[in-house]
Amino acid sequence: MTTLTAAFAQAAIDYRNRTALIDGNGSSYRFREVKELADAYAAGWHAKGVRAGDRVLIAMGIGVELYASLAALWSLGAAVVLPEPAMGLAGLKTAITATQPQFFCATGPYRCIKMLLPRLWRIKLLTPKPRRTAPPPRPAVDPDSVALISFTSGTTGIPKAIPRTHAFLMAQWQAVAPLLHSDVEEIDLVTFPVFVLINLAEGRTSVLPNWKMSRLAVLEPSSLVSWISANGCTRALLPPSLCEKLVTARDTGSLRQILTGGGPVFPDIVQNLRRINKDINITTVYGSTEAEPIAHAHTTRHGYGLFVGHPVDAVRLRIVDTEIQVSGNHVNTGYLDPTRDSETKIYDGNTIWHRTGDAGHLDEQGQLWLLGRVGDQVITDKGVQYPFAVETAARMWPGVVRVALTTRHQRPLLAIEGDVTQISTWRTRAAEFGIKDVAHIPTLPLDKRHHSKVDKKALDVMLA
């Protein structure tokens, strides 16, 4: 069985002079150059004692050093620990406690973190600097050994550590590959790191963000369009918040296609993009940290909930008491801490089902519609109402920018960001769903990871 590292090594031969990465500074790196960096890092780190099975905590920006470091460490058989960047120092502390790493790999100012966190003081520091040492031995990679440990966002509880084996990463590649397939050469603007890994394995050019993903709120729409056009990007893999930036700019630059996910992709976002560029292809991708991807759609439809299309071929999907549950080779089957498994795992013979925590339903064509998080439904005078069923409709009302269905004092409440002069219209329309309480919120709080979904916990604090 091959691995992503082996596939990247082959791509470095097959596409040696093709551009692999363009970083946020506009610097371009060919496939052979990224491979040379990875080999040099591996040599230096093996000399420092990194061995198969060691856990290496990484803290660095999204750039060529990150991907060369991943390739280097995997070639040594080490397991990479990636903390949740949106959590800052808290994410690093969580990662250290959960994984007990043997090494800390950092660049630039991130190296100072070692001095800030006492639990890192006795851990050896690795810096991605090429060193002239003998090539290290390449251990045979066990497909079932852990390659990567990442974390859930923690928006619904304490973050969980997710171990991903080399076999899991390959299964994820196989599940994603049909979505990225193209008959022409593409230049992809990629904001999701897993897709950069797949592009490196497939010999495709990736353009990295020239902004901090943790500061999407302050990114100027015109700057996003300029970055797309300056690099001749033909496709973009973006969260919905960046799609909204393109709508605000009224320009999609040189793009022919957008793949978007990481948060709810409402129909109005897709429609507004197509008003700007009627020829652009838009693919919405639904998934979770534990299972990416689950479903995808090339069109948008109106109905009960949020349309996300057909489940991908690699996943098995069922609905149990409105909850979406999935299984497959690219679906996480257990957490690093096995005591957390009971929260989301169901054992059914030889099959392990993952409980997504999302409510949904399948239509007569077997296509998936999302309703919101399980338990977020409210009881109104018109019966049970699910968040996405109401929010999808409400985003089409006059003056609405963003909306969230929640509760206050045990009563359903619709919180709306937008033109407050339209509030009487909003109240009339909300009454059609049996919702009597409507509140205008100047700016609804959004998640820290992708800035694409309303942070319900933060909203409840605001309303209180």
Descriptive report:
The chain has 464 residues and is α/β, with parallel strands linked by helices. Helices cover 30% and strands 28% of the residues. It contains 14 helices and 25 strands. The strands form four sheets. Strands 1, 2, 9, 10, 11, 12, 13, 14, 15, 16, 17, 18, 19 and 20 form a 14-stranded mixed sheet that branches. It has a six-stranded mixed sheet with strand order 6-5-3-4-7-8, sandwiched between helices. Strands 23-24-25 form a three-stranded mixed sheet, sandwiched between helices. Helix 1 packs across helix 3 and helix 1 (4-14) crosses helix 7. The longest helix has 17 residues, at 31-47.
Averaging pLDDT over every residue, what do you get? 94
Distance between the termini: 54 Å
> Which spans have pLDDT < 50 for at least 5 consecutive residues?
none
The count of DSSP E runs of length 2 or more, i.e. the number of strands, is: 25
Secondary structure class reads alpha/beta
Largest sheet, strands/sense/barrel = 14 strands, mixed
Oligomeric state of this protein: single chain
Rg, please?
Answer: 23 Å
Beta fraction of the residues?
Answer: 25-35%
Q: Approximately how much helix is present in the residues? A: 25-40%
The number of helices is 14
Tell me the overall shape.
globular
Topology (elements, then pairings):
Layout (H helix, E strand, L loop, with lengths): L3 H11 L4 E4 L5 E3 H17 L7 E5 L4 H12 L3 E3 L7 H11 L3 E4 L6 H4 L7 E3 L19 E6 L9 E5 H15 L6 E4 L2 H10 L2 E3 L13 H10 L4 E4 L1 H10 L7 E4 L6 H10 L4 E8 L2 E7 L8 E6 L4 E5 L2 E5 L13 H4 E4 L2 E12 L5 E6 L4 E3 L2 E3 L1 H8 L5 E9 L2 E8 L4 H9 L5 E4 L15 H8 L1
Parallel strand pairs: 1-10, 3-4, 3-5, 4-7, 5-6, 9-10, 9-11, 11-12, 12-13, 24-25
Antiparallel strand pairs: 1-2, 7-8, 13-14, 14-15, 15-20, 16-17, 17-19, 18-19, 19-20, 21-22, 23-24
Helix pairs in contact: 1-2, 1-3, 1-7, 2-3, 8-9, 9-10
